[in-house]
């Protein structure tokens, strides 16, 4: 009699998984779901910041073209930020619905405004931009006032700022004399230190 081999279908047999494999499978599923949520939240943050950027587009179009101080730029870093200038930017809060307008100062980061309203945030950023433009104008005016306006005035200020020999300014010979005196004192100090060491 010939013996027939009975081949069992692997699908009919229950698969025995170890508890570790089952736990790894569950963990991978949870990680995938969490990653999907993180991507969705990040996309929601970027979308909200784009809404604010659109609300501010008219404001930034009105800025004079020679002003490179202010620029409404969305960076896709972590977290995404809407940069107003090098000091101020808007990020989304932890709830991903609240706009946070932050300004870096020498004393640390200041929260200028937190709100869920695009209109409120756009209004506050507009005020900030206006203040920055006024600061820029004042700085430019003070530079104009401090700078000589004509080449003749420039020559006069250079002559006035130059010390004269009769006004008690330090001349070249005085500096040379001080330098030579320093060398003599240094050599004398080394000589006396050498004598002390030899006498021991």
UniProtKB/TrEMBL annotation:
Disordered: annotated segments: 1-28, 140-167
Transmembrane segments: 173-198
Keywords carried by this UniProt record: Membrane, Transmembrane, Transmembrane helix
Compositionally biased region (Polar residues): 158-167
Protein name, UniProt field: Uncharacterized protein
Source organism of this protein record: Microbaculum marinum
């Amino acid at each position: 009699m010939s013996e027939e081999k009975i081949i069992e279908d692997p699908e009919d047999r229950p698969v025995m998984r170890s508890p570790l494999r089952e736990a790894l499978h569950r963990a991978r599923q949870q990680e995938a779901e969490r990653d999907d949520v993180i991507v969705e939240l990040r996309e929601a943050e970027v979308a909200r910041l784009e809404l604010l950027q659109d609300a501010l587009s008219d404001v930034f179009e009105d800025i004079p073209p020679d002003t490179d101080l202010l620029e409404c730029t969305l960076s896709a870093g972590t977290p995404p930020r809407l940069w107003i200038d090098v000091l101020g930017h808007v990020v989304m809060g932890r709830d991903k619905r609240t706009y946070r307008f932050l300004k870096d100062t020498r004393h640390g980061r200041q929260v200028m405004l937190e709100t869920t309203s695009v209109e409120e945030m756009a209004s506050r950023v507009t005020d900030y931009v206006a203040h920055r433009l006024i600061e820029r104008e004042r700085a430019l005016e003070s530079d104009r006032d401090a700078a000589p306006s004509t080449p003749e005035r420039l020559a006069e200020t250079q002559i006035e700022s130059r010390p004269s020999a009769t006004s008690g300014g330090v001349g070249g010979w005085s500096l040379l004399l001080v330098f030579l005196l320093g060398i003599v004192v240094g050599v004398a100090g080394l000589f006396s230190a050498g004598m002390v060491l030899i006498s021991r």
